[in-house]
């Protein structure tokens, strides 16, 4: 099924999504990769606030290439999500609504997605130049010294993703493989 969703979004919207749905996201998302996740965890461990309100929001696991002249951002493809798996359950418990990346997630992340009415979306790896055309603005909001791994606020329009793991416990990587085996 194809859906158009405004981000950030609530639990009811997350619960309306199912593994395999094609979704076009419009609104605000934040980028963060390994180094930014480590810094966010360190901040939480010290009792500090995160650099953005995580509740209801999405984190896109992406570090863009430099922008060409006249462009908002450079190539903006997803990075492998499993590198953030040790941080994701805690962020979901704090209200993160979902993540955009590529690749499989651990059982702990899949469980946290269900428990917190979240969602894991996949963006197409290797299509970063095309995906960048859906990004209308990009602003570094934290950890600027990390360069491409800094946290950015992106305004996106009709950003194409596929629901991989939904709040009902479905995992497209597993179900698709099971169907293929039949």
List keywords for this structure.
single chain; 182 residues; 5-stranded mixed barrel; 6 helices
General description of the model:
With 182 residues, the protein is an alpha/beta fold. Helices cover 26% and strands 27% of the residues. It has helices at residues 11-15, 34-45, 88-93, 107-115, 128-132, 172-181, and strands spanning 2-7, 22-31, 58-60, 98-101, 119-122, 135-142, 151-165. Strands 2-3-4-5-7 form a five-stranded mixed β-barrel. The longest helix is centred in the N-terminal third of the chain and has 12 residues, at 34-45. The two termini are 23 Å apart. The model has no long low-confidence stretch (mean pLDDT 94).
Secondary-structure map:
Layout: E1 2-7, H1 11-15, E2 22-31, H2 34-45, E3 58-60, H3 88-93, E4 98-101, H4 107-115, E5 119-122, H5 128-132, E6 135-142, E7 151-165, H6 172-181
Parallel strand pairs: 1-2, 2-3, 3-4, 4-5
Antiparallel strand pairs: 2-7, 5-7, 6-7
Oligomer: single chain
Q: Report the structural category.
A: alpha/beta
Work out the strand percent.
25-35%
Helical content band: 25-40%
Please provide the count of β strands: 7
Largest sheet data: 5 strands, mixed, barrel
Spatial strand sequence of the major β-sheet? 2-3-4-5-7
SSE string: EHEHEHEHEHEEH
Number of helices: 6
Give the overall silhouette.
Answer: globular
Span from first to last CA?
23 Å
Overall mean pLDDT stands at: 94
The rounded Rg comes to: 15 Å
Low-confidence stretches: none
């Amino acid at each position: 099924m194809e859906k158009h969703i405004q981000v950030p979004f609530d639990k009811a919207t997350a619960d309306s999504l199912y593994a395999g749905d094609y979704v076009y996201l419009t609104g605000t998302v934040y980028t963060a990769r390994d180094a930014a996740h480590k810094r966010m965890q360190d901040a939480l461990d010290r009792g500090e606030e995160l650099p953005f309100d995580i509740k209801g929001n999405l984190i896109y696991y992406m570090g863009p290439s430099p922008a060409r002249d006249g462009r908002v951002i450079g190539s903006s493809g997803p990075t492998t999500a499993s590198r953030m798996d040790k941080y994701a359950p805690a962020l979901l418990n704090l209200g993160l609504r979902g993540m955009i990346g590529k690749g499989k997630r651990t059982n702990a992340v899949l469980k946290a997605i269900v428990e917190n009415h979240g969602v894991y979306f996949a963006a197409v790896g290797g299509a970063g130049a095309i995906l960048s055309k859906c990004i209308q603005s990009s602003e570094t909001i934290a950890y600027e010294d990390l360069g491409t791994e800094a946290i950015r606020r992106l305004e996106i329009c009709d950003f194409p993703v596929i629901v991989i793991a939904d709040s009902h416990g479905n995992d497209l990587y597993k179900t698709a493989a099971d169907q293929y085996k039949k």
